[in-house]
Design a protein that fits this description.
Layout lengths: L10 H19 L9 E5 L5 H9 L4 E6 L2 H10 L4 E4 L12 E7 L8 H11 E11 L6 E3 L3 H16 L10 H7 L3 E12 L4 H18 L1 H6 L5 H13 L6 E12 L1
Parallel strand pairs: 1-2, 1-4, 2-3, 4-5
Antiparallel strand pairs: 5-8, 6-8, 7-8
Helix pairs in contact: 1-2, 1-7, 5-9
Bound molecules: S-adenosylmethionine (SAM).
The site of S-adenosylmethionine has 21 residues, from helix 2.
Length: 262
């Protein structure tokens, strides 16, 4: 699974995830607070972008963060020294049943061929009454001004690339049935919309340019190589996406956050 991971593990990707995390902290994380002493499993922690936010918001909780990539874990360890990191596969978790009070997953399910099985595996290690929190995006929720057919097509290349790698970048809209069907109770999903215009330079830089458009740009060679778009159209699409970050442009994107109980 790790080698198919569509965004890759390059330094640029690490910087992109860090920018994204910083910009979206309040929108996505303000309501995730774990009590002192509670045992929290963060699954698919990557380079630790969310780990540092989680631990800052809940400094006295006991975090265990796992990822399948040793390289990403090495970076995460540097960022969050108080956390127990472990290389592990979500589908073969090295923990006993009911080991954790809370489970947190962010931007991971979209990359998995069987996200329902991943949720069921995570449910096993959660104690009865414990909480699951899942945050995912949905690339179909991106719309912008000025509109551009080529930009929309470039975004669709990202969706298609992720699909070919076995993932689903439109997963946000189906979090509710996924979590419910994995056996969780009291499922609540809240959409978290990012809206960017010329009055919000931090979001223009941190989200429109360095997060979303950089992500689309990142699959360019693959998309052109697979014949999804001509190189010229793809370049024009990416240019049009960057154009939405100008002072007169706007950009909208919706994340979905699910909270549920075992
Ligand atoms: C987009 S990154 C998200 C990282 C982090 N949660 C964040 O939001 O910054 C997805 C992560 O899931 C990890 N991953 C993918 N499949 C996995 C699996 N089967 N078990 C554990 N981690 C996995 C990847 O290695 C990658 O670090």
């Amino acid at each position: 699974m790790a080698t198919d991971y569509v965004h890759g593990y390059a330094t640029r990707e690490a910087a992109r995830l860090a920018d994204q995390a910083a910009t979206l902290t309040d929108l996505l994380h303000a309501d995730t607070i774990y009590p002192p002493g509670s045992r929290v499993l963060e699954a698919g922690c990557g380079v630790g972008a969310q780990t540092v936010i989680l631990t800052a918001n809940s400094p006295d909780a006991e975090f265990t963060s796992i990822d399948i990539s040793a390289e990403s874990l090495a970076e995460a360890r540097r960022k969050a020294p108080g956390v127990t990191f472990r290389q592990a596969d979500i589908f073969a978790l090295p923990f006993a049943d009911d080991s954790f009070d809370h489970v947190f997953v962010c931007f991971v399910l979209e990359h998995l061929a069987d996200p329902g099985a991943a949720l069921a595996a995570l449910r096993r290690v959660l104690r009865p009454g414990g909480s699951l929190t899942v945050i995912e995006g949905d690339h179909g929720s991106a719309y912008f001004h000025p509109d551009s057919a080529r930009a929309r097509e470039a975004v669709q290349c990202l969706v298609e690339s992720q699909k070919r790698a076995g993932g689903d970048s439109l997963i946000g809209r189906r979090l509710y049935p996924l979590v419910r069907d994995a056996g969780f109770a009291d499922v609540t999903v809240s959409p978290r919309m990012v809206y960017v215009d010329g009055s919000r330079p931090d979001l223009i830089e941190g989200f429109s340019r360095r997060t979303f458009t950089a992500m689309v740009e990142g699959v360019g060679a693959q998309a052109v190589g697979q014949g999804l778009m001509s190189e010229a159209d793809w370049a024009a699409g990416v240019r049009d996406l960057y154009r939405t970050a100008n002072a007169d442009g706007t950009f909208c994107y919706t994340f979905f956050k699910a909270v549920a109980l075992k």
